[in-house]
Amino acid sequence: MLNGRNVWIGEKPCQLVYSTKTLQPHQPLISMKQKIRVTVWGENVHEQKYPAIAKIYPQGMHGTIAEALRESEDLEVVTATLQQPENGLPDSILENTDVLTWWGHCAHDQVADAVVDRVQARVLQGMGLVVLHSGHYSKIFKRLLGTTCSLTWREAGEKERVWVCNPGHPIAQGIDRYFEIPNEEMYGEPFAIPNPDEVVFLSWFEGGEVFRSGCTWKRGNGKVFYFRPGHESYPTYHHKDVRRVLQNAVHWARPEGSLWIDSCPNVPIERAPEPITLKGETMHEPGGTGFR
To answer: Is 52 left (phi over 0), alpha (psi -120 to 50) or beta?
Structure first.
């Protein structure tokens, strides 16, 4: 069963449709007693190609990230990788994912556009997305943000100091004024992203650059968080504060409210809230779907 309300977008009436197939009205997608279902997506290329990286992440980077998240008992965590059928993200996985984490670097172009379409649709419906490090150039991140997401960079193993900009933000809970990562890749401004809703973390690097390293956005009904640390050559995802941020980010990004299923049906005259008559000519056939 579907119900909704009519709104105007541009020159066409559209309907915001809320699914009540499995939910009662006003029932949240996740009750506070339910576990948050997390899918950790990893490119899983560097670990297979470079022994030095495999030594740091013998379970793969995705395995280490999943291990960090499993430290929170209220998270139910599975992993998916690029090499699996449908890049590990078929509908059956995404429909059972409350928050998706994404790490990619050298194989962004190998992610199928159909997979990107599915992930985007789920985010707009309410699924949370946590994009990590070089995932800034992923298809899904650029699609959702609408910009190039480019930046400056340097791989020199320098110290990164991650400053907390908003101590009251849920993602920053349990973190001191700052924490330091001994060796990391540098990312620097300008970072070609739309203005974030919130900047939670700001990084300073040993070479002098700074970077907005923890940013949030809302896209449709879903929350998006970008977190900068995580270059594959360094043991960043073993760092206790980085792991805490990952846990906090997943809790923050969990869906809220009812599932929002995007739809744009034609609303016939007889279903208008107030009585009206047709005035003038129309280009659309009765019951037509319109131009898309």
So the answer is: alpha
* In-domain check, residue 266: no
What is the identity of the amino acid at 243?
Answer: R
Q: How many domains does the chain have?
A: 1
- Give tens-digit pLDDT for 167-205: 999 999 999 999 999 999 999 999 999 999 999 999 999
Given a contact cutoff of 8 angstroms between Cβ atoms, the answer to whether 214 and 201 are in contact is: yes
With respect to residue 3, please indicate whether it lies within any of the assigned structural domains.
Answer: no
Q: Show the CA angle centred on residue 223, arms to residues 165 and 12, nearest 5°.
A: 130
Does 2 fall in a domain? no
For the segment 106-132, what is each residue's pLDDT rounded down to a tens digit? 999 999 999 999 999 999 999 999 999
Instruction: Write down the pTM of the prediction.
Output: 0.86
Residue 87 sits in a domain of what CATH number?
A: 3.40.50.880
Closest CA to 222 of 130, 124, 119: 124
Could you give the dihedral angle defined by the CA atoms of residues 55, 60, 64 and 67, in that order, rounded to the nearest 10 degrees?
-130
**Domain membership flag for residue 43:** yes
Structural tokens at position 222: 């879903």
For residue 13, whether the previous peptide bond is cis, meaning omega lies within 30 degrees of 0, is no
Beta-ladder partners of 18: 3, 260
What range does the domain containing 136 cover? 28-257
Report DSSP letters for 230-254, one per residue.
--TTS-GGG-HHHHHHHHHHHHHHS
